[in-house]
What does this fold into?
Amino acid sequence: MARVDVVMPQMGESIAEGTLSKWLKKVGDVVKRDEPIFEISTDKVDAEIPASSAGTLAEILVHEGQTVPVSTVVARLETEVGAVIAAVATAPAPAVVGAAIVPPVPLTAAAAEPKAEGREPSAHAGNGNSLEDRLRSKSSPLVRKMAAEYGIELRSLQGTGLAGRVTRKDFEGFLASGGATRAPMAMHGPGAADRHAPQIDVWPGDVVEPMSKIRLLTSDHMVVARRHAAHVTTFFEIDLTRVARLRQRLRAEFEKQSGHKLTYLPFIIRVVTDALKQHPVLNAAHNGAQIVYRKQYNIGIAVALDWGLIVPVVRRADDLSLSGITKSVNDLADRARTKRLKPEEVQGATFSITNPGVFGSLTGTPIIPAGTSAILCLGAIEKRPKVLTGADGEDVIAIRTCAYFSLSFDHRIVDGSDADKFMATIKKGLETYPDSEK
It folds into this structure.
């Protein structure tokens, strides 16, 4: 009989902590090897974590909503069924972090803490060289970014994590308590500041719910991305009749061979990657006084989930056939919906596409993801009456399959003419798409 530790995994090199968002098993449940046992949320992705071995869940040490450093033991498995079952009824109820049972640990400035009686201050206290100071500064990338945004030195705060590590919950509690004395600094200029967001009144009958982890992350990322880039949007109407006919002709055989439905998106991705090669500033990133031109063509595809939005990345899309793009997009979307994406699969996009048209939206002005220079928005694809020139030169009205495409671009490095030339290349590519496909 032996017990096996279940630990908080490290979901990527830059991730120092994770939030245990949901237990999928309870104490006493039998667990199979590789069966999902709990869900976590990190700065990058939500994921289900499988059990490393079979057994019975004997003990839960970290409860839902708690954020802990990677490698923390969150539970223990009993490798033989029996010994732990009797203990379930008598086990003490778990403390709920944030509830009245266990009051939250307040976050205060280290300098304001009262000196412990009989304890001398460290010779290195406050100089940033002590082990405690160094560990405390090793917070997650998101917490470090938030601290930089508010001009707060993490070493001056006392957190609830390992060795005083400041967690996201700690930092948000510090802000809520009025600990920050100034508004967050704008990312695009030193010393510039935004005003604090106004606090609204809650009226009788209102329902107040805390944001989920993914919603909090989306909120932070969108605000930072919006503030960071100089957003401009251009709009084009594109005739997709030729692609629609080709898709209709290919779809039965395509679906028979690949097992996947053939949508418009793979055609669009192929044309987009060709256009990015012709207009490299759209596959670039602003970096201070530099422009970084990417030589990989990694296309982020926005996927709407019941609990939020995630953008998995089709890597080296220019090397993929129509079938390869379709399989990659479908695989990423399926695993996003089942929380099986890896952190690296939602990172490294050089250009992004969002498709609100599937919900009926005619167009949109999406926010440019940080680290890229543009995002393409696809509106609803529908049949419209259009005026065309007939064979003998007269005007005729015809039914065409069309959609509005919009491009939000970063005006710091992309001029309007660059964006419009890029969109004109996409328009031409789709309206003259070749009749044969690989």
Notes: The two ends are 57 Å apart (CA to CA). Residues 231-431 form a domain with the Chloramphenicol Acetyltransferase fold (CATH 3.30.559.10). The CA atoms of residues 271 and 429 lie 6 Å apart.
